[in-house]
Design brief:
The protein is of the alpha/beta class and 308 residues long. 36% of the residues lie in helices and 27% in strands. Strand 7, helix 6 and strand 8 form a beta-alpha-beta unit.
Length: 308
Amino acid sequence: MPDLLLETRGLTHRYGDVVALLDVDLAVPPGRVGLVGANGAGKTTFLKILLGILDPPAGSVRVLETDVRTDPLEVRERVGFMPEAACLPRDQTAADFIGYTAELAGLPPRAARQRASDVLTLTGLHEERFRPLGGFSTGMQQRAKLAQALVHDPALVLLDEPTAGLDPEGREEMLDLIVRLGGFGINVVVSSHVLPDIERTCEWVIMLDGGKVLRSGPIAGLEETGAIEVELLDDATAVAEALRTRGLLVDAEGHRMTVRPGSAALDPFAVILDALADQGAGLRRMAKRSLTLEDVFLGAETESDSRP
């Protein structure tokens, strides 16, 4: 297992005057990685650079500790790609198409057919493997695209919007498949603008906005920086003001407050309890609220916009 799954330094790419990626520096460990951002944030451009399809004018990029510029074929041998766009031949059966892609990857015909059968079973298409792809539903087509990305037994798969167009049941099945890939020792990069999908499947997240990295880090532990929700028996105005004088950030409305650490050096829970005691206020409920990826993303956007 490599020490780093992805590594970039100063990675920049432009389409004419439009900057798609700007000075992207990343060091991402192995595992399941989410690549998030709005449409136009640079996600698809980044995936194409990882595959060696695009040659950026500036910066360096390594995938599985291999330089994409100097050894693009080695990278492609070890990486599978599931595109977002429709790309399946309508008149071929799933077994024929996936077997063909396995042969393209270098497997002998007999081994390719067996490998195709295995990955179609893994992706839930064993019963449909002899049906033409043109008759597949959207969910079945997404699974077939995933099967072709897996057929050559890659160390890493890049998934571009894997749940696009799926109904709720198909979405859940696809997300379950992505989690299972990690159990098989396959690294995954999931590109998506649907943040709950990333929270459900990934261990690490890369946030892009306007071609820049807003944040790159583990998803676990977000709750440690979350706010504290407090509900009192009476109006919270006096307690909220007392907490502000102690350095906490407080949003109060009626009986409820949302409290954030702010500049307070002490445990915010202890500060809240002291303020309640000083004010003689009755507590109904107090609990830490975990941050969602949306909270982190919007907060990072705000921080980025405020920088000179």
